[in-house]
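**User:** Hello, beginner here. Are you able to go through the protein record under this note? It all follows right here:
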Amino acid sequence: MHRRSRESEPPRIDHMEMVDIVKEFPGVRANDGVSLDVRSGEAHAILGENGAGKSTLMRQLYGMYEPDEGEIRINGTPVLFRSPADAIRAGIGMIHQHFMLIPTMTVAENVALGRRSSRGIRLDLDRVGERIRLLSRDYGLQVDPDARVWQLSVGEQQRVEILKALDLGASLIILDEPTAVLTPQEVSDLFATLKRMVAEGHSLLFISHKLHEVLDVSDRVTVLRDGITVGTRRTAEVTREELVTLMVGRELKPQTHREPSPGEAGLVVRDLRVTGDRGEEIVRGVDLHVDTGEILGLAGVSGNGQRELAEALAGVRLVSSGTIDVLGQDLTTAHLNERVKAGVSFIPEERMRDGAIREFTVEENVFLRDHESSQFRRWLFLRFGEMQRHARRLVKEYAVKTPSLETPLKNLSGGNIQKLILARELSRRPTVLIASQPTRGVDIGASEYIHRTLLAQRDAGTAILLISEDLDEIRELSDRVAVIYAGRIVGVLDRADAEVERVGSLMAGVAG
């Protein structure tokens, strides 16, 4: 394996302990006496629902927050990290859920960013590039050092983050929900890399709420619930059912799928063609129809036109040709706000980019597109009291955990942000709902809630197009399943005929 010079190598971490950690924010105690430890050559998973305190705990280990109480020990010695730079010098790296990369810079430039050049004021990107190639070879992280980050897939960008940590000499690496935005193949590649790192003696702290990932990757697992440690188990000695009960405090019941009562044609798409970001045709003559009171699931491997199709239907991407009808009304060239008025709601794939504004409050995000409604406006004046009552009702009805309506959205967990977007979009009582990856990155409890809500919305008469890369989710919720491949619909199956093997073959472009 490639090693950096001993002069710049941080000390090796053989044992890290977090003891009785407490962290409070206004209105919430995020961590309440949490303890865990990890040794070299071990993968330790931190499991819990969104809002359980997982990320807050790891941000203290990485120096982004200081604990209010408790102690962090490295190789038995108490330490205090006042910044991420302190943690990095101690040998700790962190791969954030939202990558900390500059898109316009190359891979080598991102890895070198903030590092002192070995040539003084002259850049040494050639040496950085060579280190990247060596690390890529050693850990199976194939990335071109000269590629610009914006040109890379999400999985490749994550590799760059891991390479940055390895190049800094981190022996303990924190991974915060590392699979939240990855395709199944990228997840498989990541896990192969993580297992190789553990075999080389690295320590991993793996934050997740996905049970199958925890069982696959980790040696031990600590479960948090509402900021408290509820148990630490050896992964080989615990069952999936035990972990679920520890996470949510109750046994989850499977969803019961009632037969639909489809009505009239809610959404009709004919020969739709849409251009991608690089000028190529990405949606190539799609025909779809979704009846009111029906869920049509759209399955496919990421990158086959699902995102562009959803954005075109919602009105945030232009259509090259074809038509989009909602209850017989032609909305092909209608703007987003016109579609909202026509009864179209949209849950976007990238919730923090397209569905919400991080710096706005919870209440402000509820009214991003509804502030012009007559319900909340009188003449030229907003009815702030009515707006606050509406926001408070949605937060309660959809079980959104937030200290207050004035809390900045960025302080909420991913699952609670997704529930807030769901509340906003469904509160309009839509005729058509475009739900794109509605449970990506959310925990088991929030997923169960979202699934139950979508089924109830279907039963209320909404035509729902459910776009998901989670085949289990598609099969569980859908009344019919359409499969998209290379921008075309290659098959539409009734629920009873949508076996995993058949759908999987269609997703791979093999006629079923």
